[in-house]
Structures are given as structure tokens and as C-alpha cells.
User: Fold this.
Amino acid sequence: MKQKLLKGKVHKFGDFVNTDLIIPFRFKARTNDPYELAKYCMYGLDISFPKKVKKGDFIVAGKNFGGGSSREQAPIAIKYCGITAVIAESFARIFFRNAFTIGLPVLEIPIATKEIKDSDTLEIDLNKRTIKILRTKKVLEAKKVTGFLEELQKAGGLEGYYKKHKKFPWE
Amino acid sequence: MEAFAKRILEDDSITFAEKIINIKSVKQDVLQAGDIAVVNVDLTLAQDSTGPLAIKVFNEMGLQKVWDPKKIFIFLDHTYPAADEKVANMHNIVREFCKQHGCSVLEGTISHQHMMEEQISPGVLLIGADSHTNQGGALGAFATGIGSTEMAAIWATGKIWLKVPETLKINLIGNLPKGIFARDVIMNLIGQLGEDGANYKSLEWKKGGNLSIDSRACICNNSVECGAKNSVFEVDGITQSYLKNMGRKPVFDVKSGKNAVYADEINMELKNLEPQITLPEHVDRVKTIAEVEGQEINQSFLGSSTNCRMEDLEIAARILKGRKVKEGTRLVITPASKIIYWEAMKKGLVNIFLQAGAVFTNSTCGACVGTHMGVLGENEICVSCSPRNYTGRMGALSAKVYLASPATVAASAIEGKIADPRKYL
Assistant:
């Protein structure tokens, strides 16, 4: 499936943004509504974050983004808050899986925080897994994904894949 | 046993993680670290904050039937009994799903401990919609956590894809000195590796021969705090007698081959360990207790799936017997399972705790995740043997959580400030 170019503004965070910071347990455990979850996105770092996001914006962060709990509500809160991709130097294992599963594009770029400033505008090509920083015209390449992850990204997540193919990627 | 599984079990050149994923793989190709496998899952768990979302996705995908209701366990444990109407409604989503599909709903006992007590055998593949599922490795299982949507897919198919992890070998050398416990061992490792130091990796613990199953459970559970995908102790006499007591036997007794290749190897001299303490906000800010002794606290929390098994309660009771919780300080004790609750009652430990002035709650994840029964207010300080001290984890964003062993938590409750437990033992 052809995916269009994403364009948006950067909200920059540091290293070790864990899932409790992304959405505290007490909020995530009391609803299944993604828009309700989105109201608490990044609550542990900036309570007013959801109000600052314009649809199409990106999160850029440092090491081990999404560490800690298995809560899928973390990538859901980010996605439904209007963020269309997360770029980080590295991701924690379960968050990384969950992001592909729920259809939140995530790109691993080890030099991301060195090259990208807060409020920069980026263009992201998900097919090539490259990002262009409009301020410096630099193009950065994210780590490639293959196999099931690539299929999930193309389908916009596991639910999308299942609805389209009437089976799971491993069946 | 089929020929392929037999060949894998006897293979000298591969690790525990490689063996178990090969045995569970739907294809009979020999896979090694880095390869992707589709595997048959033996057991699953979900809980009241991941299960309702998995159920929503299961229904939205139009899935009609679960693959095997006997292998699906959904726990109401994180906020149990329901602390408010919203949680009560989430609990009812789980009860209704389990009734419809014939799977088990378990109320008021923590998933990881219950699965150990009643379900897990060596050699099984347990997948949980909860990061602390790693605990199952204490009994020689491959146990790891995932999210809700993938859990819904496993409920439907009994299968999932897994990357075969590299393995980090930890050699425990010698015996634990007085006042030092399993929790100090794993906290020390987390401090050495950092919170992402074992990301994507399997941890294999060697020569931990004298560590009890309770201690191994603590270590495996807490191993996710350095990013480990799973964590495992080889089956030995201690595992066998635990299983015998529980009326179970190994499915496969899987051991790493003598010539298996490890990503790295770490030696830990146990005799050198001091009581460990983790400073607030990051799980890898691990120090020795001398550096923070005397820090005043508002609450001591002895609970969660990471600690608060019988061994932990017995140590806490030894420290608290005949003593009182310092005025102005709260001690909340939350056992890790219903069985442990009963045992603590029968052995008279609950009497000791109540006489000391502690609150003894039902089994729940409660205070650990800041959802009920021990939530912290603004600027409060807590010392806790739960797994995480992240900002806002146990309540207010300005609250601070120090992590320590159950002994340190109990000793600190007596003094109203962070205290070295060795003087009470």
C-alpha cells in the first residue's frame, strides 16, 4: 500500500520516557475509549501536552522510549492525541511491538536528538523510512523493518491487517 | 516425544531461550538468536487493565471463538476489589467475556503469583499481557509480556511471533550475607546494566542453587526493569520439590547446551552485596543503603508481585515482632496472592503486623500502580519493595518512591526513615 508523506512539527523529549510518564495507570485502567486515553498523553512530563499537539505532529525522544509496563494504552494515547509518528534513539521492546500492532509509526534513529530541535518541521517517508529536517535539509535514515513488522506497518496495525486479510500475518 | 524436540533438547550448542522457542515453533527449522519464529503458546494471562482492551479488540475484529479456554486466564488483580464505578465496569467486561467463552476469571489474587502456584511448569511458553510475566522463569518456563491486541490474537489462534533473543548469563557466586536478599541481587544487576541494558535479551541465572523459589520469582519478575524479554532459572532440586508440593511435573526440562553462545556473562559475588536502594524516578538509580539512610518517609509499602511472598512476609515479621511502626508513618502490607494471605494468617504473621500498627490488605497490585490502597499524595515519600519508582507511579507526580528489599521496607517503617535492616536481624 502506498503511504503518503507525513509532515508536522516536533515535540522533543529526553531519554527514558517510560510508559507511566506517557499515561499513568489510574487513567489508563478506567476506560477503553482511545480519545479519553489521549487526554492524559504525556501526563507525567507535561499535563498540557494534548492541548499543544496539532494533528500530524511528531514526538522526538532519546533512549529507550516506552520502557516499563506492557500497556498498549501508551501508544494509543499518543496516536489519538494527534501524533502521527514517534522518532527515538531507541525503543523499549514491548512499546515497539505495541506501536506496530496499533498502527503508530515508530522510527529508530540513533542520532535523532542530536540532529532534530524542538519545533522543527519534518517530512517523513514511511515507505523509505527516512525523515527530512526542513530547517537543515538533512535526510536521516531510520533502521529498516522487515517481515511481520513491515506487514503491520503497511496495514496500519494488526486489527487493520486482520480485517483486510481475514487472517493474522502468521497464519 | 517427537524427534525434532528431542534433537533440540540434546543440542549442545544453543541456549535455553533458543531451545524453547525451537520446540514451540510451528516449523521444524533450527532457529538461533535473531531469527523470527511463529510459536504455539501454552498458557496466557491478562489482567484488569490489559484484558478489557484485548476483549474490545477481539470483538472489534469479529473473532468468534477462543482457541482453548483452558489456556486463557484473566485476572482481576490490579484494582481489586473495584475502587470505583469505572473499574467495576471494566471488571464486568472481563467477567462477561470469560462466561461467554468458558475461560477462567480469577479475582483478588495477583496473576504472576497465581500462575506459579497453579499453572506454570518448566518448559512451558507463557505469554502475558503484563510486563512482569517474566516471573514465570522462576520455574524454568519461558515467560514474557506483550500488549493487549496481540493477546486478543493469541486468544483466537494460540500463536504469536517471537524473535529468538540473545542470552545474558549471570553467575551468582557464593551465598547471600545476613540482611541481603534476592531483591538486592536483582536491584544490583539493574543498577549495573541500566534500564535498557538487557532490552530484547534473555537472562539466564546460574549457580543460584540455594535461592528459594520465592527469591527466584522476585529476581525473574524484577528483571523486566533492565528490559529483559525473559529471565530464567534452570530446573533443580528446589524447583522439583516446589512442583511436587504443588502437584505438578515438568513438561520439558530444558537446559542450555554446554557450548551455547552467550551475548555476555556477568559474575556477581554475593558476599560483597550491601542492602540496595533505588533513588526516585528511574529504576536504575541504584545505590547502597548507607547513601540514603535517614531519609524521612511518609509510607512504607510491602507489596506487589515483585515481593511480598511468604519468605518476604516472614522476614518482615521477624523485624516487626514486638516493635511498632513509627508514629506519623504508614506501613501498608499487601500479600502477593490469596494463598499467601491464608498462610500469613495461619502462621500468625498477620497478628504481628497488626500489633505493629500495619495495614494488612487483600492481594492486589493496588499501591504499586497508584490505583488504590496506598496511593501517595503531593510531595509524599515512600519506601517500597514494588518494582517501579517512576514519576507519578504511586500517585502524585511530586511524590517520591525509593525501592528496596522487604527487610529494608519493614526496618524503615519502624524508624520512619530509610533504615538498614541488618541491625534488626
Summary: Chain B has two domains: 3-268, 276-419. The mean pLDDT of chain B is 96. Residues 162 and 172 of chain B are 28 Å apart (CA to CA). Chain B touches chain A through 53 residues (CB under 8 Å).
